[in-house]
Design brief:
With 171 residues, the chain is of the alpha+beta class. 40% of the residues lie in helices and 16% in strands. The protein has a five-stranded antiparallel β-sheet.
């Protein structure tokens, strides 16, 4: 790996230090958001790998956003859920840890009501995609959840696999 300062290849120790710095910068950036929910989407099924879990995450995101925001949800990117998903144990018990920010200034009362049902809606759609799966949704009590959710990013292979909601937007 070349370092961006143009000084040549980065050794193992330098790469590790760079990776730790990037991970810390990510955690710092995540503090800029006002996350409202901590969600775990578990497959409880070992053979599912990263690519299949990513496809399931994308489908879950589409279904939940459609139910909350209506059939034209794709044309209203400003109303979609804001989230970051971190993979964990992709070889043993693949699951996603997500931190989610729900829009607090919803003008439509029906959309506000649907958004308040995120737990119910998210649970229903995850289990319809992964029958043996499990779904957990909790309120975010402190910024400590960011440290917890990003713990798997300590491994370089996992750090490169976290997903941001915008990756699934057609904008």
């Amino acid at each position: 790996m070349k370092d961006w300062a143009g000084k040549g290849a980065i050794g193992r120790g330098g790469r590790c230090a760079l990776h730790q710095r990037i991970r810390q910068e990510l955690r710092t950036k995540l503090l800029d958001y006002d996350f409202t929910h901590f969600i775990t989407l578990a497959s409880n099924h070992q053979p599912l790998g990263y690519l299949r879990m990513r496809a399931l995450l994308k489908e879950w995101d589409a279904r939940v956003n459609r139910e909350i925001n209506g059939p034209k949800w794709g044309k209203r990117p400003d109303e979609r859920l804001v989230w970051f998903a971190f993979p964990e144990k992709m070889d043993v018990n693949p699951h996603w840890h997500m931190i989610v920010q729900v829009d607090q200034d919803i003008e439509s009362s029906t959309r506000a009501e649907r958004t308040e049902r995120l737990f119910e809606i998210g649970h229903m759609h995850w289990l319809s995609l992964v029958r043996q799966g499990s779904f957990d949704c909790q309120g975010v009590e402190s910024a400590g959840v960011i440290q917890y959710i990003a713990k798997m990013s300590a491994e370089e292979t996992h750090f490169n696999k976290f997903v941001v909601f915008r990756e699934f937007m057609n904008i």
